[in-house]
Amino acid sequence: MPSIFNKKQVVELTEKLEKAKAIYFTDYLGLDVSSITELRKEFFDSEVEFRVAKNTLIKLAAEKNKINGLDSFLSGPTALAISYDEPTKPAGILKKFNKSYDKPEVKGILFEGKVLDGEQFDKIASLPTREELLSSFVGTVQSPMTGVVRILNAPMVNFVGVLTGLKDSKNN
Question: Quick check: pTM over 0.70?
Answer without folding.
Answer: yes
